[in-house]
Amino acid sequence: MKKTILSLFALSLFFAQHSTLHAQRSIPRDEKVEAQVEALLQQMTLADKVGQMCELAIDRVAQHSSDDHVISNKSVQSLANGKLSASAIDDIFGNWRIGSILNVPEGVAQKPEVWADVIRVLNRASAFQCNGVPQLYGVDQIHGASYTWGATLFPQEVGQASSFNKDIPYRVGQITAYESRACLIPWVYGPVMDVARSPLWSRMWESFGEDVYTNAVMAVQLTRGLQGDDPNHLGMNSVAACLKHYLAYGAAVSGKDRTPSSVTYRDMMEKYFQPFRACIEAGALSIMVNSSNNSGMPFHTNKKLLTEWLKEGLQWDGMIVTDWADIDNIWKRDHVAADKKGAIALAINAGIDMTMDPYSTDFCTLLTELVNEGKVPMSRIDDAVRRILRLKIRVGLMDEKTWDIPYANAKGSKGLKGSKGSKGSKKVATLVEMYPDFGSDKFAQEALGMAEECMVLLKNQKNLLPLKPGTKLFVCGPNADNFRSMNGGWSYTWQGDRTDQIARQIGKYHSFYEALAEKFGKDNVSFSEMVKYSARNFNLDERLSESVDAKVQAADVIVACIGENSYCETVGNMDDLNLSPNQVEMVKSLAKYNKPIVLVLNEGRPRLINNIEPLATAIVHTFLPSNYGGDALANLLAGDANFSGRMPYTYPKHHGSFITYDCKPCEYVETMEGAYNYNANTPIQWTFGYGLSYSDVKYSNLRVASLPTSKGKAALTKGYTPRSAGGVKYESDDVITFTVDVTNNSDRTVKEPVLLFVSDLVASLTPDVKRLRAFEKVSLNPHETKTVTLSIHPSDLSYVDEDLQWVLEAGEFKATVSSLSQTFELK
Fold first, then answer.
1. What integer is the mean pLDDT of 380-400?
2. Are 255 and 574 within 8 A, CB to CB?
3. CA 168 → CA 127, 158, 584, distances in Å?
């Protein structure tokens, strides 16, 4: 029976709050900032303005080394005095007034002094040529300052999500911003917050997993860590965030990167839009757009999503940038325009503010023509440039004291010979003095602790783990001694293909094998790779011929490190999620020795292992833990740390059985009996939220502690989905509060993620089986009990109807924490 819908008066108030249009600006207006924007805009010609709207790659002014597969001291020396072209710099700023530069010089991570030298040269030249407005430099610093030599790298986002610890992405953001600013980098392309709905997707590891709420919460925390508390005035330890990829990028029908989605606007609004909405409300300053299309409509030309939902709907004054060369994709690939000029008109009129071209200045010429022909209104140009200038002011670029800073007091770079620049500024502290914690041991310890919290114990038969001191180990597999696979893509290079070489040159990290040898004693740990990845193709490996019989016979336990090599974006597209045959055969051959096997999964997406899972006594998922993952795994296997991670996505069991935890009832239960009897069960390997620890944690006394006491307006207008994810505080009488007792019945300290799921029992549209609505991670001492309080707002239980209106229906709901459940009613 359909539930009673809330009263017409209450609904009108509710819809007003849930409508596309906000009652207030997402970022508070700052009159001084706006006055500065208008003063700069008034000085600009049309050429100045369209130049600001164009972003070029650093390749346009930098040269690559002759052999881009060789790393030497030469390749990380100062590029500004020898590797940047003075004439090219004068051209892009003097002739084209380019507003932004992106990407890493020479395609490989640079030392901080090189970054600082390059960006100072570019800023000086652009400020001199472009009415005092410096260029805005953007970099894909994804899991730490990952394009910077010696910076602290952290677990990739999917691992951060598995921690269910909100403090982790916040600190990742803070340290990433600190170490990026130490290089004078003011803008980073993250967080990635694409709700990853297909396990085939090659960018699953870049996201916070499959759940909407988890993506919203963790992305908000990362955004706040990157930007600080005041989005109008970023300090010298903060950088501008660039949310990506707007919208539904992780929902490609094929599971392939940059391929179309087919998402209804109802699902778009209720699920995929919500993490972006939460981050915009938390003050995010820029957004990057999904490269593909939805049901034939390119996201870069979708005015409804770019302007109506985002800019107007959220009253957001931030800036929208394309992804790599996506103006060209509008006409060359998607065929919704006849030529580049037509594509530019569609994108700019839809709401794009800056185009990542990245090699051509044709954009400037063609956009100028479009304005002169009346096909793009001057008002749209002015709006875009206001947003770009506003971003530059907010990150501090208009004050040269924030970027014209020498790296050190020694004889450093004096700038590029032949380039035009300012006369310099008064003596200031050096970057070395301003950022003494860059690459510090303090940051390393935090990264180690994060990696420990991000790993998930999936199986532990006969309590094999933790391993006793002195246990003899045979460590093997292609991921056992491989920093590339530990880090994944966006690590020193785009594909992460030079990570192993760079990490070993830096010389302070340990692979899984090296860390286990340090922990259990080198005499107790033997090693053989057995299977080796191809250097050129992430998805190819080969079986090695070395005999391991003696090493296995001498061991007490086998630790097989398996999974994937690093990849990024379209390069990682694949057709089959099954673990490679060579790795499967390796595990099967080891099982014949009848020794306990610990499978260590090191992968960016779930590779199917149903044929070898029964052979393992214990299984650990490490995701992509980065440079400190080896030490983290060793600490966990030895029992010096306790497991506390949980699965951030549903791990499939078979290739034809992909499902998410928040599915519809008919996707996983027997639904009909009789003459037409069928079973829709979808077998899975491990469900979202699953994970074990070394502690015996018990849940008891789940209670609905309070329901809303206010009526009508008060109950229905305090926030909307998922404003609770953005950290909005509600009055106590306007929330639904649950409490549960959590007890650690062991002698070990444990961190326990407490996850609250809610099911709508009857709705006018078929509800999801359940949705995660809140979580907290609590630390429990041995034999300690804590009462955990979890609160949600009634509007968190609403859904979007066929008319794209938010609806909250009265009726029964079920709250579930662990194995406990309680029903409650909203009247």
1. 98
2. no
3. 37, 12, 34
As given in the structure block, the two tokens for residue 386 are 């206001």
Q: pLDDT tens for residues 628-669? A: 999 999 999 999 999 999 999 999 999 888 999 999 988 876
- Beta bridge partners, 744, equal 697
Name 54's Cβ contacts closer than 8 Å, sequence gap at least 6: 96, 98, 99, 100, 354, 355, 357, 361, 363, 364
> Are 813 and 759 contacting, i.e. CB atoms less than 8 angstroms apart?
yes
Distance between CA atoms of residues 794 and 521, nearest Å: 55
What is the share, in percent, of the chain residues with pLDDT greater than 70?
Answer: 88
Check residue 306 and report its DSSP letter. I
Question: Among 53-57, 70-74, 776-780, which is the least confidently predicted range?
Answer: 70-74
Strands 799-800 and 806-807: antiparallel
Instruction: Give the angle 73-75-76 at the CA atoms, nearest 5°.
Output: 70
Its sign, for the CA torsion 113, 118, 123, 129, is: positive
Tokens 């390069």 locate to 571
pLDDT of residue 713: 39
Instruction: Supply the DSSP string of 63-118, one letter for each residue.
Output: ---S-TT---TGGGS-STTTTB-HHHHHIIIIIT---EEES-GGGS-B-HHHHHHH
Residues 6+ positions from 365 with CB-CB distance below 8 Å: none
What is d(CA 214, CA 168) in angstroms, rounded to the nearest whole number? 13
Other CB atoms within 10 A of residue 513 CB: 25
Greatest alpha-carbon span in the chain: 87
Q: What is the mean pLDDT of residues 676-702?
A: 88
d(CA 307, CA 175): 33
CA distance between the termini of the chain: 16
Distance CA 65, CA 59 (A): 12
Closest CA to 794 of 705, 717, 702: 717
Three-state SS sequence of 109-153: CECHHHHHHHHHHHHHHHHHHCCCCCCEEEECCCCECCCECCCCE
Vertex 97: Cα angle to 96 and 101 (nearest 5): 100
pLDDT at 414 over 90: no
pLDDT, average across residues 33-53: 98
pLDDT value at position 81?
55
Give the active site residues: 323
CA angle 433, 435, 440 (to 5 degrees): 115
pLDDT tens sequence across 300-318: 999 999 999 999 999 999 9
Question: Does residue 428 sit in helix, strand or coil?
Answer: coil
- Contact residues for 122 (Cβ-Cβ < 8 A; gap 6+): 61, 89, 101, 134, 135, 137
- Residue 743: count other Cβ atoms within 10 Å of its Cβ: 17
Average pLDDT value for the chain? 90
* Side chain identity at residue 783, one-letter code: H
507 dihedral zone (left: phi>0; alpha: psi -120 to 50; beta)? left
Higher pLDDT, 552 or 11: 552
The answer to whether 771 and 662 are in contact (CB under 8 A) is yes
Q: What angle do CA 440, 442, 445 make, to 5 degrees?
A: 115
